[in-house]
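[Q] Does anyone have a clean structure-token version of this?
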Amino acid sequence: MSIYRLALMELGYQLRAQLPKSFAALAEVEVVLFEHLATVRIPDRIVVPVELAQENPARNRASDLVLAVEVVSPGSGRTYRVLKFAEYAEAGIPN
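[A] Here you go.
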């Protein structure tokens, strides 16, 4: 198993153990950042209110997220640290 996959698994375990019961961590789901630009991303993990997670929407709106997490791989560092970070911030994801 790759270091990337191991990191994703550990992240999932840590989030589950530490999140308040009112939040849920989800893996690799679509997030609409900007409706007018049709911009969709799939972060490695997101955190949303548990009520929203139970609704299981096909896509999540950026405004519903409290956290988006990307595990950076060696070949994608600039994209993750610059482009995606800026997009998530501009879309209003607070963390």
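[Q] Thanks! Anything notable?
[A] The chain has a mean pLDDT of 92.
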